[in-house]
Amino acid sequence: MKNWLKIVAVVLLFYVHIGGMLVDVPRLNILNETIRALYFHVPMWFGMVLLFLLSVYYSIRYLRNPLQRFDHLAVEYANAGLVFGILGMLTGMLWANYAWGSPWHGDPKQNGAAIALLVYLAYFVLRGSVENEEQRGRLSAVYNIFAFAAMVPLIFIIPRLTSSMHPGSGGNPGFNMYDLDSRMRLIFYPAVVGWFLIGVWIVSMRVRVRELEEKIIDIENEKVY
Amino acid sequence: MKKFIKNILAIALLLFSTLAYGQEVEMADGMRSEGKIYVVVAIILIVLTGLVVYMALLDRKIKKLENLLGEKNPSK
């Protein structure tokens, strides 16, 4: 990852943390001041989807050309995406506790997101259960494609078809309810980009650690033979 | 005349109540006017700075390890 991208990520996040607290927001009943959580909760999910998208991209590349590097990238993007998803879930539950009355409502959006996270957890279970490296790479790459294809309807389509309290579903198109105010967009979109870039940064470091591991294993093997 | 005054009063009350309704959504205005919100902003910025610096140091450490292995193993 280029250094200037890391700096962009940090600058954006500083902007978001200052602006997210200080800039005016719409005055809405029930939500009151908690509407500011939108700047931190929603970017987690947007970041997760973008990271999963990159993960599936590298899985497809791995299937076309089985280089170990693609497998590393796919698994690390999925890993970082899962962390973002768990953070999104926890922040969402805390917010729901105050906006909806209890942390878990069995709301279609919550259930769908929970199932999607479990589907991705199973990706790591699958990887852990196959010894052979090439087999593991191929199997998990195929599974990853199915996992992504399952995640999209679970999070974006099913909650729209049923009634959900979560904004952006159950007939509420997008963020209209909040985004009548374009001031919120000015902070929300930089937040998405900033957090996503932080995710990419973490992935790049974890991939480098994996490559170091591979090098060390190679050196050890050369010593043995 | 009495009726007229009554009507005026009623309309005035109605207007006042709608004005009050517009202000009814409670926000942390008190905290903002006292300037304490800046304390919150400063605290989250300290946490953010700390985490970012920590990540940058981790990045540098990985770079050092890469260089170390690169020197030991120039063929790779």
Number of helices of chain B: 3
Q: Proportion of β residues of chain A?
A: under 5%
Estimated share of beta-strand residues of chain B: under 5%
Q: How many β-strand stretches of chain A?
A: 0
CATH C-level category of chain A: Mainly Alpha
| Content-based structural category of chain A | mainly alpha
Ordered list of secondary-structure elements with their pairings:
The complex is a heterodimer of chains A (225) and B (76).
Chain A: H1 3-22, H2 38-64, H3 68-99, H4 108-129, H5 133-161, H6 176-179, H7 182-224
Chain B: H1 2-22, H2 29-34, H3 37-72
Quick structural overview:
By secondary structure, chain A is mostly helical. Helices cover 79% and strands 0% of the residues of chain A. The model of chain A has no long low-confidence stretch (mean pLDDT 90).
List the defining traits of the structure above:
heterodimer, A: 225 residues, Four Helix Bundle (Hemerythrin (Met), subunit A), 7 helices, 79% helix, B: mainly alpha, rod-shaped
Describe this structure in words.
- The complex is a heterodimer of chains A (225) and B (76).
- Chain A is an all-alpha fold.
- Chain A is 79% helix and 0% strand.
- Chain B has 76 residues and is mostly helical.
- Chain B has one domain.
- In chain B, 83% of the residues lie in helices and 0% in strands.
- The interface between A and B is medium-sized, with 23 and 23 residues.
